[in-house]
Amino acid sequence: MGCICHQPQSLDHISRGRRWFIFLVGMVETMLWSGTIFGWASLVHVMKIQGVYSDLCIQDLNENNATGVNATGNTLIQSEGNNTGTKGCTEQDEMFALLYTVACVVYSTPGILIGYALHHLGLAFARIAGGLMVCCGFLLLSLTSAATPDYLWGAAVLLAVGGNTIRMAGLQFANLFPGGRNTAMAIISGIFTPSAGVLMLLQTLFEGGVEWHWCCWVFAASSSLVVLVTPLIPRHHIPYTSQQEKEERAKRDDEERSVSVKSSVLSLSSCLHAYWLFINLFGVTLFATHFNSWINRFSATQEEASNYSRWFGWANILCVFLTPLPGLTMDLLGNRFTRGKSGLMVQVASIQAMIIPMLVVSLTVLTQTSMLLFRSPWAVYVGLAALMINRPSCLAVGNPFIRARFPADHFNRLVGIQGTVLALLTFIQYPHFTWAQHQYYLTFGVTLAAMGLSLSQPLHLLSTSYLTRVLSPPAPVTPLVIVQEGYRDLITALKKIHLVLIEKRRTNVDMFTRVFEDATEMAEKTGHPIQMPRRFRRHCAVMWR
Questions:
Q1: How far apart are CA 407 and CA 260, in angstroms?
Q2: Model-level pTM?
Q3: For residue 183, what pLDDT band results from cuts at 50, 70 and 90?
Q4: What sign does the CA torsion over 48, 54, 56, 58 have?
Q5: CA–CA separation, 35 vs 40, rounded Å?
Q6: Cα–chain-centroid distance for residue 356?
């Protein structure tokens, strides 16, 4: 009973058997609940069968080829001349696209709040909150019907936020194995992809004759186990060993560089990486957003459309077998590229080892999105095969790049800033979907061109001279070195000196006065007369404040 609701001081107080139990629990929870909302295509198929938002199609009756009106007054729309037997129309598809866009945005946007809760309120609080949100999401889903469609909004938001909370809480479980922390982190990070298949299982049960509310109640009860197992998990956080904590701190101190977070965020590599990550994640979610309306364009029967929808769910489940591949590929290429190198070139080689995985991700996303231009069964299977590769690879390749390219102490802040920005940019999903309803091929032509531009991210890493220049730690700069370099313009020298003082957080008057006197004396000794323009007094007055 001592392990219940207890916070161990170190890993020495957690037995090896209990560590494996906690890690396996985290894996299963992440695999089932952390990304449930991304199986949206399967849920939309069921919602259309149940007639959710089918009332919107009555307004579109005169604009579509209706095959008839059923007993409840709902319009049965024929997609491109093929009777799929699925209620649907443009307005209904746009409503589901708007719902999915909002769900994707709220999935990542509260990440800062979730991180704050994990840091201050602890692991148990975050797990209970995440488990309850997912459970309540399925309960609201059970209440969703043609008569009460708005419950779907609450269900989507709760499944999204609760899933991300469970995912972020599970990342701590990598600390259970200090010797293999990176491997454990890769597994726990990428294994969230099969959770999108949960909604496919929900669809299968419903189509198998199980009542909708019973299907949802089963998953609600299963997700509540996250709350019930929480007392067996360390209450506040997964601890480090004392020695490991000291080593981590010493490593951070050794790697600290005099580079500001602002300069990292605004650097060429950071901007290109943010664009690369956004456009590829956007392509993955775009495929899910358009999947249902796409397959209905060429499916001859409802059974054929249902079959494609099930394969979409299976593709998300089978991603679990490809989850370790990105990490293993980068490790293999990194070892090969860094062989025989030393010093700074090791870091350069480790970054360039990520070029091939990045190109693979970009090309598979490009292939997957281009399949939406074709109306054939083979396009569905090619798109799903590409999805299985790129879905677990985007973040698995992107996060190690940030860790290798930028200072270690910038990692969390860069990931947080980029995550928030990408979440806000995800709002363009809905206008993109609306645009595609009216100009389908033009919309995807522009999208594919934008995806092609993302290749600039891995390709710019081919420049060894660029990486060497940006990765070289800046030489320590002192006022004496600045003056010895022979600056003739005093204003330029003073600006340079002032920047040095700001970096050292020493901008007081005494320090600046001493530096100015040393600079003047050194200028006289070196025989380089320093010009004194009329702006001198104004600049000095500004710096002296």
A1: 9
A2: 0.61
A3: low
A4: positive
A5: 10
A6: 20
